[in-house]
């Protein structure tokens, strides 16, 4: 069979038929697991990141090739996304509209079979999850170029939602238009952050083309459909969803440009062994207060991956700190550190322990 192309294709067809048969066998087990979950806890989240991570890690570890290990994660993300849809609808609210980088982060986390609900503000994302109209919410928290998203931090002050997970999404900007012909472009539109992240490229390659700000990169893509002389700075997903052509790909000035997103839920995820804990706290106004706050983390051997401060809005010169540390709140060292810190704070709130992005 080594030299017969038709025989190789027949063999691939046979294997594909077997893969499909096994996917259906797998799906029957998934449906039964979903039934048992609902019997045990009717309100339980069907999505279990610990189990998903264990499946992928096991498959990657035993993979001998030639199928690339980096291809296993996206393939099984879609298999598990489709499987979850058999157990029940997975509704995910996100800061819309469609084809934004938040939408892309959602799909990276939950796959294409989830039911996505675009809303107009970060506050609405929190509200959809708090009211039970969505199982999860996805909001941006920080960007490597533009910094922290303060509105997201502020929402945690009064919300009882927990952080269920995080997603790191590469922000790669493309210049798109209806025709794909650069000579036809008379105007470029995009979100202010996208324009700022592509400023040097625009000044070098299209210095005489006016650039205008719009509400989102997706709205910029919509404008291309309305006017062939308009180009948009937007994502590859926007090109696919709106049927646009890429004039130039990856025009961002910083190629190491990522946005971190948080997944919100009313429930906490299971412990995975590779977790992160987020805390919100307010410290007493005294000399050395911040040093006293940080010392227990070091004394208990915890790595702090982020600290951000915001005005409390309740008292002048009083600040709230948002802290990320490695580890899970159920670990003794994390629990003891939090206990030590609590006595030194005006208030302390655990925002969640959740799987660190991998």
From TrEMBL:
Chain ranges of the Prephenate dehydratase domain: 91-266
Residues of the ACT domain: 278-355
The EC number(s) this enzyme carries: 4.2.1.51, 5.4.99.5
Sequence ranges assigned to domain Chorismate mutase in this UniProt record: 1-91
Catalytic activity: chorismate = prephenate; prephenate + H(+) = 3-phenylpyruvate + CO2 + H2O
Sites annotated Essential for prephenate dehydratase activity: 259
Cell location: Cytoplasm
Pathway field: Metabolic intermediate biosynthesis; prephenate biosynthesis; prephenate from chorismate: step 1/1; Amino-acid biosynthesis; L-phenylalanine biosynthesis; phenylpyruvate from prephenate: step 1/1
GO biological process terms held by the UniProt record: chorismate metabolic process; L-phenylalanine biosynthetic process
Keywords: Amino-acid biosynthesis, Aromatic amino acid biosynthesis, Cytoplasm, Isomerase, Lyase, Multifunctional enzyme, Phenylalanine biosynthesis
UniProt GO MF annotations: chorismate mutase activity; prephenate dehydratase activity
CC per GO annotation: cytoplasm
A Pfam family it matches: ACT
Function recorded in the entry: Catalyzes the Claisen rearrangement of chorismate to prephenate and the decarboxylation/dehydration of prephenate to phenylpyruvate.
PANTHER family recorded: PREPHENATE DEHYDRATASE P PROTEIN, PREPHENATE DEHYDRATASE-RELATED
Identification of the protein by name: Bifunctional chorismate mutase/prephenate dehydratase
Source organism per UniProt: Nitrospira japonica
Organism taxonomic ancestry: Bacteria, Pseudomonadati, Nitrospirota, Nitrospiria, Nitrospirales
């Amino acid at each position: 069979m080594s030299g017969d192309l038709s025989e190789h294709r027949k063999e691939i067809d046979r294997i594909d038929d077997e893969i499909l048969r096994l996917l259906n066998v797998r799906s029957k087990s998934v449906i039964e697991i979903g039934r048992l979950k609902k019997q045990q806890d009717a309100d339980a989240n069907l999505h279990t990141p610990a189990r998903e991570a264990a499946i992928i890690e096991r498959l990657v570890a035993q993979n001998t090739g030639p199928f690339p290990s980096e291809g296993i994660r996206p393939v099984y993300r879609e298999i598990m996304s489709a499987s979850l849809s058999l157990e029940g609808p997975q509704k995910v609210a996100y800061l819309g509209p469609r084809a934004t980088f938040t939408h892309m982060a959602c799909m990276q986390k939950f796959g294409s079979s989830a039911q996505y609900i675009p809303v107009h503000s970060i506050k609405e994302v929190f509200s959809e999850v708090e009211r039970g109209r969505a199982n999860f919410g996805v909001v941006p928290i920080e960007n490597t170029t533009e910094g922290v998203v303060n509105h997201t931090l502020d929402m945690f002050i009064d919300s009882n939602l927990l952080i269920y997970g995080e997603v790191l999404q590469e922000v790669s900007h493309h210049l798109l238009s209806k025709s794909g012909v650069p000579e036809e472009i008379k105007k470029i539109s995009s979100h202010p952050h996208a324009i700022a992240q592509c400023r040097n490229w625009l000044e070098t390659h299209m210095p005489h083309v006016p650039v205008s700000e719009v509400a989102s990169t997706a709205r910029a893509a919509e404008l291309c459909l309305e006017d062939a002389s308009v180009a948009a700075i937007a994502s590859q997903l926007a090109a696919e969803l709106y049927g646009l052509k890429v004039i130039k790909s990856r025009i961002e000035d910083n190629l190491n440009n990522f946005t971190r997103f948080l997944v919100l839920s009313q429930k906490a995820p299971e412990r995975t062994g590779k977790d992160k804990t987020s805390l919100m706290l307010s410290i007493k106004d005294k000399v050395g207060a911040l040093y006293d706050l940080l010392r227990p983390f070091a004394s208990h051997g915890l790595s702090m991956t982020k600290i951000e401060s915001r005005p409390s809005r309740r008292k002048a010169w009083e600040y709230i700190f948002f802290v990320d540390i490695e580890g899970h709140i159920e670990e003794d060292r994390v629990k003891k550190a939090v206990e030590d810190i609590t006595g030194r704070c005006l208030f302390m709130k655990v925002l969640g322990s959740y799987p660190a992005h991998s």
